[in-house]
Amino acid sequence: MLFRVTADGTTSVLGKDLTGISRIVDSRQLGPHALVGDQKSSRVLRFTDTGMRQTVIHFAFRATGLAVDPENNLITSGGKSGVVYHVDDEKTLSQLVQLSEPVVDLATDRLGNVIVLLKSGKVVSVTSQDNSTPIGFLPPGTTRIKIHPDNYPVGLTPAEQRPTLNRLNKTSTPRQFAGTAMGTSAFAFDGLGNFVLTNPDLRAVTRVKSRFVVNCSHPDCDQKVHMILTPNAVPKHRQRSF
């Protein structure tokens, strides 16, 4: 089942009987999409607020990863083949780039670059057709990659005790972003940079908030003040940190 969870925690069902869901992405213009399939084929489904769904495209291979770029094109990959594909408004499938390793997951940054996580943990940026550049590393075994609102990649790495969120590093040394609860299987960021965790063992979706917006305390001021809770706050000149 595919659920929509609003900011106040209200849930509604968008889709049922969706066997083999592997990825979900949302687009402000196009709405939510789900990548479903089996070992031999995949398809992308688009959903409306009323629960209607349509098949956007079929793939004659098991697709890995799903993203939407700023021009509302879909991006996916052939997984083991290392090929990253582009699907345009006409539902035309074309090869974007051939990479040297199997693809584990991918995302698009706010500039429209395709950020691809490879099996070894190497991360590459695909800026145009047949043009890819290594940009750093996540720990081997990382299963998911997302782009923080500040435009840097973060990956989810499973572990025996607690999976961790790790920030992209220029070297192969892990750079931990946050710890998570045992059983965490996926994550996402809201617009402020707070992260949301999904845990099938707990059947829970949890938002971890360290960033929020408050009204300015000055009289007759309608400005919003962005606040960040961090244990590493450093006092700055004419600013308050906490």
What can you tell me about this protein's structure?
By secondary structure, this protein is mainly beta. It has no helices and 23 strands. The chain has strands at residues 2-5, 11-15, 21-27, 31-37, 42-47, 53-59, 64-68, 74-77, 83-87, 93-98, 103-108, 114-118, 122-128, 131-137, 144-147, 153-157, 164-167, 176-179, 186-189, 195-199, 204-208, 211-215, 224-228. The protein has a four-stranded antiparallel sheet, with no helix packed on it. Strands 7-8-9-10 form a four-stranded antiparallel sheet, with no helix packed on it. A four-stranded antiparallel sheet has the order 11-12-13-14, with no helix packed on it. The N and C termini lie far apart (41 Å). The model has no long low-confidence stretch (mean pLDDT 90).
- What proportion strand? over 45%
- Runs in which pLDDT lies below 50 for 5 or more consecutive residues are none
Spatial strand arrangement across the major sheet: 3-4-5-6
Mean pLDDT across residues: 90
Give the helices and strands as they follow along the chain: EEEEEEEEEEEEEEEEEEEEEEE
Number of helices: 0
* Intertermini distance: 41 Å
Based on CA inertia axes, which overall geometry fits?
globular
Helix/sheet category: mainly beta
Q: What does the radius of gyration come to? A: 19 Å
How many β-strands, per DSSP? 23
Largest sheet: 4 strands, antiparallel
Binned, the helix content reads under 10%
